[in-house]
Specification:
Length: 299
């Protein structure tokens, strides 16, 4: 390995540590400053810890640590060493930061004084932090691991998987909380899944561009050689006249999509182009997940 390679690897390691640290502090801050005061159990293992703290003589941070260790062992087994190593770090750091907050602010009360505002702020912050971790192949532990299991084996979108796991936690609050907190937990859990989906897919959305053009070769060369993207060519037969044409298909990022459309418009203004929004692609040969078409969007 060359010195440049070592430097690059070192940079990537520190980048991962930095991102995970920032994301975990964001999540811990959201939990302590906005979830703790409401005593709601919104889509998180900490929510379950809050419920259990009513019946177990341990702090929320301590219960969170215990639950995370159990789920961490499961996640390490299912998702491999990289996921496990990263999540070990975040799973330990999260309750540590919570413990620090508990010591520094022992009698902390809500900043806003309104449980609905607290839950709204919590959802936005915790979803943002969780999305950073998911996109770095990591997790804050707890329900994130449960959601990733549902995502991988049942092909449920991460936001929806978080909602399913979170609803189970939210419903358990009925044993220790009043009806207002239970309803707030359920509503917060639902919207948390929606916001999490937005943060995750908003960073990974791609476009599946289908092109029929008399200047197919020029467009193909631009995609492959200039944009360094892949492309596939299919035979397409028109239903009206039975004419056979080649259809060029490429999946590109949102940034590359605009570059490609501009090139097509300049090269062949009469080209027929259809575009699909893509959220996930799974390469069965490499066993890697990228994006899969969700719905058609525009011409």
């Amino acid at each position: 390995m060359t010195r440049a390679d070592k430097s690059l690897n070192l940079y990537l390691v520190f980048k991962d540590i930095f991102l995970m640290t920032v994301a975990t502090i964001i999540i811990a801050s959201a939990v302590f400053f906005f979830l703790y005061p409401t005593q709601a159990s919104v889509s998180s293992i900490v929510g379950l810890a809050i419920i259990l703290s009513h019946v177990i003589n341990l702090s929320v941070a301590q219960i969170t640590m215990i639950l995370n260790v159990v789920l961490l062992i499961i996640g390490f087994t299912l998702f491999g060493k990289e996921f496990g190593a990263k999540t070990i770090y975040t799973s330990v750091l999260l309750p540590v930061v919570l413990g620090i907050y508990e010591k520094v602010f022992p009698n902390y009360k809500s900043i806003t004084g309104d449980s609905i505002l607290d839950i709204t702020a919590y959802i936005l912050l915790v979803s943002f932090g969780a999305a950073i971790l998911f996109n770095d192949n990591a997790s804050s532990g707890g329900l994130d691991i449960v959601a990733k299991i549902l995502n991988r084996y049942l092909h449920i979108e991460l936001g929806r998987a978080m909602s399913i796991a979170g609803i189970c936690v939210a419903l358990s609050s009925v044993f220790v909380s009043n009806s207002k907190i239970v309803v707030l937990s359920l509503i917060g859990t639902y919207f948390n899944g929606i916001v999490l989906d937005y943060f995750i897919f908003g960073q990974n959305i791609r476009r599946r561009v289908c092109i029929i053009s008399d200047k197919k070769d020029e467009i193909k060369n631009f995609i492959v050689n200039e944009m360094n993207c892949g492309a596939t060519i299919y035979k397409a037969v028109g239903a009206y006249n039975g004419e056979s044409r080649d259809e060029l298909i490429s999946i590109v990022t949102k940034h590359d999509y605009q570059i490609l459309i501009n090139f097509i418009a300049k090269t062949d203004p009469s080209a027929f182009v259809t575009v699909y929004t893509v959220s996930e692609v799974y390469d069965t040969h490499r066993h890697q997940r990228f994006n899969v078409p969700r719905k058609s969007s525009e011409k």
